[in-house]
Design goal:
Number of strands: 5
Shape: globular
Strand content: 5-15%
Helix content: 40-55%
Radius of gyration: 18 Å
Number of helices: 11
Distance between the termini: 41 Å
Order of helices and strands: EHEHEHEHEHHHHHHH
Strand order of the largest sheet: 2-1-3-4-5
C-alpha cells in the first residue's frame, strides 16, 4: 500500500450500496499510488463537503437515492471543474451514458468489470484519458453516426430529466421541490419545458414519451 504522495490518485467514492462502497474502498486502498479520501452514500452529502474534499477523481454511481448521478456530476463540475469524474454504473442505456457525459463525466465504466479494469480505468482518467467500457464506447460511436439519435439524447437537460424521474415515481410538485431543494415554481417551469419539448399532454404522456425515446 502506498503512502500519501503529491502524485497519488485521491479517489472519492459515491455509492449508495454499503457493501459495494466498502468493497470498492478496500480494493482501491490496496493499490499502490491510490488513496480513498471520501466515501458517500448520497449526492447531498457530497455537495455538503465538496469544497473541502481532498480528491482528484470521483467515482459516481448514477443510481443515487436523493438525486440522479448526472445532476450530481453537473453540480460537482460546476464548483470543482478540475475534479475528474467517472460514472460507475450498471446502466449502459444511451440516454444514461450521454446524460453523464454531458454533465461532465470523462469516464464511464460498467459495474461487473474486473477489479483490474476498474483500477486501470481510474489511472487512465487521472492521466488525462477518457476510459469507457468497450460496449459503451461502441454505442457512443454508433450514436454519433446517427444524427437523429444524437438530437434526441440532447433533448432534455439533466435537471429536466431529474424532475421527470421524480414525477415518474408519483411525487407531487411540492415533493419534487423538496427532494431537489428547489421551489415548486421552478419545478413547474421545468415541467412546462419538458411538456413542450416532448409535445406531451400531461405527466403520464411525458413519462411514456421519455421512456420510448430512451430518456428515462
Amino acid at each position: 500500500m502506498g503512502g500519501r504522495s503529491a502524485s497519488a490518485i485521491r479517489v472519492a467514492i459515491v455509492e449508495d450500496d454499503d457493501t459495494t462502497r466498502e468493497a470498492l474502498a478496500i480494493l482501491l486502498a490496496g493499490e499502490e499510488g491510490v488513496e480513498v479520501t471520501g466515501r458517500f452514500a448520497r449526492g447531498g452529502d457530497v455537495l455538503a463537503e465538496l469544497q473541502s474534499l481532498d480528491a482528484t477523481v470521483m467515482l459516481v454511481d448514477l443510481g443515487l437515492p436523493d438525486m440522479s448521478g448526472d445532476a450530481l456530476i453537473a453540480e460537482v463540475k460546476a464548483h470543482r471543474p478540475a475534479l475528474e469524474v467517472m460514472a460507475y454504473t450498471v446502466s449502459e442505456s444511451r440516454a444514461g451514458v450521454f446524460a453523464a457525459l454531458r454533465a461532465g463525466a470523462t469516464g464511464y465504466i460498467l459495474k461487473g468489470c474486473s477489479p483490474r479494469e476498474l483500477v486501470e480505468a481510474l489511472r487512465t482518467l487521472a492521466d488525462g484519458g477518457a476510459p469507457m467500457s468497450p460496449s459503451v464506447a461502441r454505442m457512443v460511436v454508433r450514436t454519433f453516426q446517427d444524427e437523429d439519435a444524437v438530437a434526441e439524447d440532447y433533448l432534455l437537460t439533466a435537471r429536466e430529466r431529474d424532475v421527470l424521474r421524480h414525477l415518474e415515481h408519483g411525487l407531487s410538485y411540492k415533493e419534487v421541490a423538496s427532494a431537489l431543494s428547489i421551489s415548486p415554481h421552478t419545478v413547474h417551469s421545468h415541467i412546462k419545458k419538458v411538456y413542450d419539448k416532448l409535445h406531451a399532454r400531461g405527466r403520464g404522456d411525458a413519462v411514456n414519451i421519455a421512456r420510448m425515446k430512451g430518456l428515462l
